[in-house]
User: Which sequence fits this backbone?
């Protein structure tokens, strides 16, 4: 009789623990996966709704462009001087500040070891190499 009561008490405590564990798994799943994803989606929607002409943006393909016009579902971007292309709003990955764009150009120049304003020398002579070394 005493053994069966001991088993009954042990099994009831295990059932409560299993119930708490069963309820805790969805809560942890929500806090670690769903909530951060909703936060990122909300921030992306705010950024897309705040687009206005003149803002410099980076597309999802890594192209930098200036916003020329904004529609309900699309944007017109100037990807080069005089070259405009229409994109869907979701193609805009983030808004780039002017300081960050200048910093990227300087970083690329530092990596190549050249000044940002210097160009590439192209000559049709097969004898001369760029840089003046013969």
Assistant:
């Amino acid at each position: 009789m005493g053994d069966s009561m001991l088993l009954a008490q042990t099994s009831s405590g295990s059932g409560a623990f299993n119930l708490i564990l069963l309820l805790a798994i969805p809560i942890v799943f929500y806090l670690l996966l769903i909530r951060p994803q909703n936060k990122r989606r909300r921030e992306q929607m705010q950024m897309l709704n705040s687009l206005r002409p003149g803002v410099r943006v980076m597309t999802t393909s890594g192209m930098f462009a200036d916003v020329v016009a904004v529609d309900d579902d699309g944007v017109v971007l100037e990807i080069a001087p005089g070259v405009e292309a229409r994109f869907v709003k979701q193609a805009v990955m983030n808004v780039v500040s002017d300081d960050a764009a200048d910093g990227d150009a300087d970083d690329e120049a530092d990596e190549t070891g050249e000044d940002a304003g210097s160009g590439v020398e192209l000559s049709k002579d097969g004898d001369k190499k760029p840089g003046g070394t013969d």
User: Anything to note?
Assistant: Strands lie at 56-59, 64-70, 74-80, 83-88, 92-95.
